[in-house]
Design goal:
By secondary structure, this protein is mostly helical. About 85% of the residues lie in helices and about 0% in strands.
Length: about 625
C-alpha cells in the first residue's frame, strides 16, 4: 500500500477517474490546510506560531499527551514555588514577656519583630512569562483544534467527492458493460471462430479490469476510512485535552473556595486573638486604676493614723501630767501618814502606861476595836487589791497597745512599781487613815477614769487602724495576686497561641504536601487510566473494525464468487444460444445464400470497423 500511495495508479484506475491526479489533489489540499494560519478569537494575544513546535503539537499522540501534561505540571510547580517564596518573605512577629517586679509604674507589653529575608533565590520564570507560557500553550491547543476541525471538513468534502465519483463510474460501468457485451455479440455474429475467441478474451479482460477497479476502489475506500479514523482520533485527542483542561480549571475553581474559607478562618482567629489582647489590656488598665485607688486610700489612712497618733500622744501627755500631780499629792499624804503613825505610836505608849489598870476593859475594848479595825482593814485591803489589780490590768493593756510610746510607758511602769511598793508597805497601816485614803481613792478613781477613756480611745483607734490597714493590705495583696495571675495567664496564652499557631502551620504544610502528593497521584492514576482506557478502546475498535472488515471481505468474496458463478452460467447459456443461432444461421445461409460472398462482405465490414476504431482511439 505504501508503494501504491506514492506511485501512479494502473490504467483501469485512470479510466475510472480515481488515479494519481485525484490523490495528489487531496494531498495538496491537506498540505494547504496544514499550512493555513487559523485566526484565533479577538481576545487572544498575538503569538509567533511559526517558530519550532514542541512535542505538544506533534503527531505522536502517546507522547503528545504526556508532554502536554508535563508542561502543565512544570508551569504549576513554578507558580506554586513562586507563591511559596513570596509567602516565606513575610514579617514574623514574636511577642516576649519578661518577668518584672511589682511596682507602681504602668505595665507595658513590648513586641519584638524581625524581618526574615528570602532564603531561596528568585525563580527564573517570572509571573508574566508563566502567564505567557500558559496562554501560548492554550492558544496552540485552540489553533490545533481549529486546524483539525478544518482538516476534518476538507476530508469529509473529499470523501463526498470520492463517493460521487465512485457512484458515477459505477453507473457508467453498468451502462457501458452491456453495450460492450452487445458489441462483442454483434461482432461474433459476423466473425468466425477466431473472432469468437477474441470476443471471449476481451470479455475476460474487461472482467479482470472490473475486478481490479473494484479492488482499487476498495483500497481507496479503506485508505479514506483510515484517514477519517486518524482525523477522528485527532478530534478525540483534542477533545480529551479540552476535557482535561476543563477538569483542571474546575478543580482550580473548586479549590478557590477552600482557600478563601481557610483565609477567612485564619482572619477570624486573628480577630479573636486581637479581641483577647484588647480584653487583657482593658483588665490591665482597670487593675492599674484600682491599684492607684488603693494606694491613695492607703496614704489617706496613714495620714489619718498619724493625726490620731498625735492626738493620742497629746492625751497621754495630759494623763501623765495628771499622774505627776497625783503622785505629788500621794507623796504628801504618805509623809502625813508617817507623822500620824509616829503620833499614834506615842499615843499607844502613853495609853499603855496610863491604862494598865484598866487591862481587862482595855483588852475587851482593844479586842473589840481590833475586830472592828481588822474588818475595816480587810474591806479596805480588798478594795485596794481590786483597784490595784484593775490598775495593773489597765497598765498591761496600755503596755500591749502603746508600742510607739516606750519612754512614757517606762515612766508609767516605774511610777506604778513605786506606787505598788508604797501601797504594799502602807496596807498594814491604812486602817486609821480613812479620810486621807478616801481622798487618795477619789483622785485615783479620777486618774483611772481618765486612763480608761484614753485607753478606750487608743484601743478603738488602734482597732480601726488595724482593720483599715488589714483591709487595704488584703485588697492590695489580692490585686497583686490577680495581676500576677493575669500576667501569668497572658504569658501562658501567648505561649500556647504561638505553639498552636506553629503546630497549625506545620500541620497545614504537611496536609498541603500530602494533598499535593495525592493530587499528583490522582493525576497520574487518571492519566494512566485514560491511557489504558484509550488503549483498550483502540484495541476493541481495531478488533471490531478488523472483524467487520473480514466479514465484509468474506461477504464480498462470496458475492463475487456467486456473481462469477452466475456469470459463468449466463456465459455458458449465451454461448449455447450463440452456438445454436450460429448453427441455424449457417444452415439457413448454406441452404439459401452463397456463404462465401456473405463471408467476404462481413470480413470487409469487420475490417472497416476495426480501421474506424483504430482511427478513433488516438483521438
Amino acid at each position: 500500500m505504501t508503494d501504491t500511495e506514492n506511485k501512479p495508479h494502473s490504467s483501469a484506475s485512470s479510466d475510472s477517474g480515481l488515479g494519481g491526479i485525484e490523490n495528489q489533489k487531496t494531498i495538496e489540499q491537506t498540505r494547504n490546510v496544514e499550512d493555513d494560519d487559523f485566526e484565533l478569537p479577538e481576545n487572544w494575544p498575538e503569538y509567533d506560531f511559526h517558530r519550532k513546535k514542541s512535542c505538544v503539537l506533534s503527531r505522536i499522540f502517546s507522547t503528545c499527551v504526556t508532554k502536554a501534561i508535563n508542561h502543565l505540571e512544570l508551569v504549576q510547580n513554578a507558580i506554586e514555588r513562586k507563591d511559596a517564596e513570596t509567602k516565606k518573605g513575610t514579617v514574623k512577629r514574636e511577642v516576649s514577656f519578661n518577668q518584672m517586679p511589682s511596682s507602681t509604674e504602668q505595665l507595658e507589653i513590648v513586641g519584638r519583630g524581625g524581618h526574615i529575608t528570602d532564603q531561596h533565590p528568585h525563580h527564573d520564570i517570572l509571573e508574566d512569562e508563566i502567564l505567557d507560557e500558559v496562554l501560548l500553550l492554550l492558544a496552540r491547543l485552540d489553533r490545533e483544534r481549529l486546524r483539525l476541525i478544518n482538516l476534518c471538513v476538507h476530508e469529509q468534502q473529499s470523501r463526498e467527492r470520492l463517493k460521487e465519483n465512485i457512484d458515477h463510474w459505477r453507473l457508467k460501468r453498468l451502462h457501458d458493460l452491456p453495450l460492450a457485451v452487445q458489441k462483442g455479440s454483434k461482432k461474433s455474429f459476423s466473425r468466425c471462430n477466431s473472432t469468437r475467441r477474441l470476443f471471449f478474451f476481451s470479455f475476460f479482460l474487461e472482467h479482470d479490469a472490473c475486478i481490479t477497479d473494484i479492488t482499487e476502489l476498495q483500497w481507496h475506500i479503506a485508505y479514506n476510512a483510515r484517514l477519517a479514523e486518524k482525523v477522528f482520533a485527532k478530534i478525540d485527542l483534542s477533545r480529551t485535552w479540552h476535557r482535561q483542561l476543563e477538569i483542571e480549571v474546575n478543580d482550580i475553581r473548586q479549590t478557590i473556595p477552600l482557600i478563601t474559607e481557610k483565609v477567612q478562618t485564619e482572619l477570624t482567629e486573628i480577630a479573636k486573638v486581637d479581641e483577647a489582647l484588647k480584653e487583657t489590656e482593658h483588665e490591665l488598665m482597670l487593675s492599674r486604676a484600682k491599684n492607684a485607688d488603693t494606694l491613695d486610700k492607703c496614704t489617706r489612712a496613714n495620714q489619718r493614723a498619724g493625726t490620731e497618733r498625735d492626738e493620742i500622744r497629746g492625751e497621754i501627755d495630759k494623763a501623765l501630767k495628771g499622774l505627776q500631780r497625783i503622785t505629788t499629792k500621794l507623796q504628801a499624804s504618805i509623809d502625813q501618814h508617817k507623822a500620824y503613825q509616829k503620833t499614834i505610836h506615842d499615843a499607844k505608849v502613853t495609853v499603855k502606861k496610863n491604862d494598865r489598870a484598866y487591862e481587862e476593859e482595855v483588852k475587851k475594848r482593844d479586842t473589840a476595836r481590833a475586830d472592828i479595825a481588822s474588818n475595816k482593814l480587810k474591806t479596805t485591803a480588798h478594795d485596794l487589791e481590786a483597784t490595784f489589780n484593775h490598775i495593773t490590768t489597765q497598765t498591761n493593756y496600755m503596755k500591749k497597745h502603746i508600742v510607739e510610746m516606750d519612754e512614757s510607758r517606762a515612766m508609767m511602769e516605774t511610777l506604778t512599781v513605786k506606787i505598788r511598793g508604797e501601797i504594799q508597805t502602807a496596807e498594814a497601816d491604812l486602817a486609821h487613815e480613812n479620810y486621807n485614803f478616801g481622798l487618795v481613792q477619789a483622785g485615783e478613781q479620777e486618774v483611772v477614769r481618765v486612763l480608761q477613756q484614753c485607753l478606750q480611745r487608743q484601743s478603738t483607734t488602734d482597732s480601726l487602724n488595724k482593720q483599715l490597714f488589714q483591709e487595704r493590705s488584703n485588697y492590695l495583696s489580692d490585686k497583686k495576686i490577680c495581676i500576677e495571675k493575669a500576667l501569668l495567664l497572658n504569658t501562658q496564652l501567648a505561649s500556647t497561641y504561638r505553639k498552636t499557631l506553629y503546630t497549625y502551620y506545620e500541620i497545614k504544610t504537611r496536609l498541603m504536601g500530602k494533598l499535593e502528593q495525592r493530587l499528583d497521584a490522582v493525576a497520574r492514576v487518571k492519566d494512566t487510566r485514560q491511557l489504558i482506557e484509550l488503549q483498550a478502546r483502540l484495541h476493541d475498535a481495531l478488533n471490531f473494525y478488523f472483524g467487520i472488515k473480514n466479514e465484509y471481505v468474506e461477504q464480498r468474496l462470496d458475492h463475487l464468487n456467486r456473481e462469477s458463478h452466475q456469470n459463468g452460467l449466463q456465459l455458458s447459456q449465451v454461448q449455447e444460444t450463440i452456438q445454436s443461432a450460429v448453427d441455424h444461421i449457417t444452415k439457413f445461409l448454406v441452404d439459401q445464400v452463397d456463404f462465401e460472398a456473405v463471408h467476404r462482405d462481413a470480413m470487409l465490414k469487420v475490417h472497416r470497423e476495426e480501421l474506424q476504431e483504430q482511427q478513433k482511439v488516438p483521438v
